[in-house]
Write a structure and sequence with these properties.
271 residues, five-stranded parallel sheet, 10 helices
Length: 271
């Protein structure tokens, strides 16, 4: 049985002060500085804030989507700056039903670091449990020795997707909300619809309304309708919330799927 990628607020509280690094990944696409300000006011003690655009994404280009993957060197330096070593327990959280914490969870594993947990229920669960919060920004006593080792087979490009649409051994999974998948609305990208042949599994289904992950049996049942003998590839708008579905697969004990990093925003740039 695989070890759960989640950690409860009680478990995290018990381990505060021990050898770990905590990252606050709260973010708002509508107001990109809102959650940096929220972090400055109140966060879990010892946690460092990482900004989706500045820290967890690479430079924007003509192609690559709205949140392209950062380079190996950028991510390696980022983790070293916050004291992450090869064996460090890293805990990540947000307040958006894993929407952004799962991105960092996946990125850490993509760059070769397996010892990472996502806080179940996020900052809201911590706050509702009346556990300590602080406005104090933690310092890092010593740089880490993190060494990034990319799992390049986990990440696919536009060329990988567009050149294999007729591949019957592959299944595309669109993680966006149903209206966007169906082409009924598109609040961000210039083109409506979805990649031909993709199935729709909205990322919000992974959690309940309070932001807690649904149980492993529920996660497993959710994916049971898909053929297990195919290569699964997930995507979303920009390669961020698709990671919630990747997290759900991990909770269910399923083999890791691949990520189309640029996702729909990258796909649109070629149309």
């Amino acid at each position: 049985m695989t070890c759960s990628p989640l950690i409860s607020v009680q478990e995290l509280h018990q381990q505060l002060g021990k050898d770990m690094v905590i990252f606050d990944c709260r973010f708002s696409l509508a107001n990109t500085e809102q959650n940096q300000q929220a972090y400055d006011i109140s966060h879990i003690p010892g946690s460092h804030y990482l900004h989706l655009d500045r820290d967890l994404s690479g430079p924007l280009g003509t192609h690559g989507g709205r949140h392209p993957m950062p380079t190996r060197r950028h991510f390696e330096a980022l983790m070293q700056r916050y004291g992450v070593n090869s064996n460090t327990l890293v805990v990540v959280y947000d307040d958006q039903r894993f929407a952004f914490a799962s991105r960092l969870w996946w990125m850490l594993r993509y760059f070769g670091h397996q010892n990472v947990k996502v806080l179940d229920g996020g900052f809201s669960a911590w706050y509702q449990a009346e556990l300590e919060t602080t406005s104090q920004i933690p310092t890092v006593a010593k740089s880490g020795q993190f060494e990034a080792k990319e799992q390049t087979q986990w990440l696919l490009s536009y060329k990988d997707i567009a050149g294999n649409l007729d591949n019957t051994s592959r299944l595309l999974i669109d993680s966006r909300e149903a209206p966007r998948y169906q082409g009924l609305e598109e609040p961000i990208d210039p083109i409506t619809g979805h990649i031909p042949g993709a199935a729709n599994f909205p990322w919000q289904e992974v959690t309940d309304d309070s932001g807690f992950a649904r149980c492993p049996s529920h996660q497993k049942q959710r994916w049971s309708t898909l053929p297990g003998d195919k290569e699964w590839v997930v995507y979303c708008g920009s390669g961020v919330t698709a990671c919630v579905n990747l997290l759900a697969m991990e909770i269910a004990g399923l083999p890791p799927a691949k990520l189309y990093g640029g996702s729909w925003s990258d796909w649109c740039s070629y149309q």
